[in-house]
Every structure is written in structure tokens, then in C-alpha cells.
Amino acid sequence: MATIGIRGTDFGTMICDVDECLLPDSSVLSSGTYSGVLSGEIALGNDAGEFPVIQGEIVRTASTNSVPELAPEAAALLFTDSERALLTPEQEKPLNLFQWLRRWVTGSL
Predict the structure, then answer these.
(1) Dihedrals φ, ψ of 29, to 5°?
(2) What range does the domain containing 81 cover?
(3) What was the pLDDT predicted at 83?
(4) How far apart are CA 23 and CA 78, in angstroms?
(5) Scanning 15, 31, 49, 58, which has its CA 20 to 30 A from the CA of 78?
(6) Which range (12-16, 66-70, 80-84) has the least confidence?
(7) Which of 25, 17, 23, 26 is nearest to 58 (CA)?
């Protein structure tokens, strides 16, 4: 579904088929590739282009030609409780221009 470029980072990725990935509260995540970054940055690339994912962000890529969308609900799938605690400080920082543009383009502002 996607190519991931690593730039000195700590991240997690999980590929979920239909009804395959359950969260601790028993809710089911939509199918797709979920990626989250604890520190550093990754670049997700597919037929839709290349998209940076920075520290504190968790995204879902639905298909090879779709733009990644924010998916904070998948944090429990990718990271332990102690790792998820590290996500909070970065998410409280103001968005930089590239973060704002990506969220504006994907409609997740």
C-alpha cells in the first residue's frame, strides 16, 4: 500500500485487512496501513504522492492511490501505554506550515 522512508526515527506500522485489527475497547479499525511516529519523521509514498508523518502523528492509508488521513484512534494498535504517553507533548505544539497544509488538503483541520 505504501513505501516508508525512515529519517532517524522511532515509529510503528501495521497493515490491517477488513475486520482484522481490534483496539482494546473491542472496536474494529478500518482496513488500511496505519503508521505512527514517536520521534523523528517518516515519509509515506504511494501512487498519490509522498507525505511526511512527523512526531506525534498517526495516519491511515486506505489504498495505494489514497492520501494518508489522520487516525489518532489507532495509537493503541501501534504503541504501548508508555509510548503513547510520549505522543501528547508534540501534539500540543502549534502546527507548522506543512502540517497545516496537509491537514487542510485532507480535510482534517
Answers:
(1) -85, 150
(2) 3-106
(3) 87
(4) 10
(5) 49
(6) 80-84
(7) 23
Residue 102 burial (10 A CB sphere; 0-12, 13-18, 19+): buried
Contacts of residue 27, defined as CB under 8 A and 6 or more positions apart, other chains included, come to 73
For the chain, the domain total comes to 1
Q: Residue 91: is its pLDDT beyond 50?
A: no
The type of residue at 95 is L
* φ/ψ (deg, to 5) at 56: 90, -10
Burial class, 18, CB count within 10 angstroms (exposed 0-12 / middle 13-18 / buried 19+): exposed
Distance CA 50, CA 69 (A): 13
